Amino acid sequence: MTNEFKKKLGEGGFGSVFSGKLPNNGVPVAVKVLKDSKGSGEDFVNEVGTIGRIHHVNVVRLLGFSAEGGNRALIFELMPNRSLEKFIKSTGSNKSRSSFNWEKLCNIITGIAKGIEYLHQGCDQRILHFDIKPHNILLDHAFNPKISDFGMAKLCSKEDSAISMTAARGTIGYIAPEVFNGNFGTVSHKSDVYSFGMLVLEVIGARRENAVTSSDNEVYFPELIYKCLIQGEELDLELADDGDAQIAKRLAIVALWCIQWYPVNRPSMKEVVIMLEGPSESLIMPPNPFASTTQMDPTTTPSS
């Protein structure tokens, strides 16, 4: 399929990804060759079998897999526009992020939210991703987002309100507080909600009007966003008109709900989708997620 692994697309924590084509019809595919494969492979096959039944417009489709001997590989549909990370990060004068306007960014974020909602509610078993970040959001030819990389995912019953974990999993900067400190609550599907909120804030932060400078006294960007909103100030973002400002404000409010320290304070992904698609006037500001945890009431919810 990969013509002896000639064209490498990228590399991550779980292995390398190569470009290939299906031998029967020539359809372009991405082949991820997993490294450090251990055990008999039974868990790998079971998990792949579950994820292989997922069919959603915002989740990368698994087309096949190989588990021969110690070599294991996953075969996915090829996403020609690579990852969302590529389009929200800039280097030097190359501002590739500008290829998206605010309306398109909102559509992408809403698509990601719908994909996560499907993983949480649309499957026979709830799938917790545990590594939601721009790098794991791939874009198809029309820049529709698709969630990828289920290397850290856990399957659980929809009735399970808490998940037992032997070690923290995820990427620093996106990991929910309860994943590494049980004092904040129990690990659950709300942990993915936190990671989604941090992803949205990163997308917003990439559209800052002024370049981010590294200084000791610079205010943490998400906290700066909260202060601007609560004080009714304009956001320091690239905004063409009032329509852009409304979209940016909506995304910021939703993200701040998602990154509440206590899981009980965060909305479900179904509620997130409603907030993203509903009328702006129905949105209310969340509690301050940056206040001292001793001052926070872990019973507040978006609908209260």
Brief descriptors of the model:
304 residues, alpha+beta, Phosphorylase Kinase, domain 1, Transferase(Phosphotransferase), domain 1, five-stranded antiparallel sheet, 9 strands, 30% helix, 15% strand, globular
What would you say this structure looks like, in words?
The chain has 304 residues and is of the alpha+beta class. It has two domains: 8-77, Phosphorylase Kinase, domain 1 (2-Layer Sandwich), CATH 3.30.200; 84-295, Transferase(Phosphotransferase) domain 1 (Transferase(Phosphotransferase), domain 1, Orthogonal Bundle), CATH 1.10.510.10. Helix content is 30%, strand content 15%. The protein has eight helices and nine strands. The protein has helices at 42-51, 84-88, 102-122, 177-180, 190-205, 221-230, 242-258, 269-277; strands at 8-12, 15-21, 28-34, 62-68, 71-77, 126-128, 137-139, 145-147, 154-156. The strands form three sheets. A five-stranded antiparallel beta sheet has the order 1-2-3-5-4, with helices on one face. Strands 6-9 form a two-stranded antiparallel sheet. Strands 7-8 form a two-stranded antiparallel ribbon. Helix 5 (190-205) packs antiparallel against helix 7 (242-258). The protein is globular.
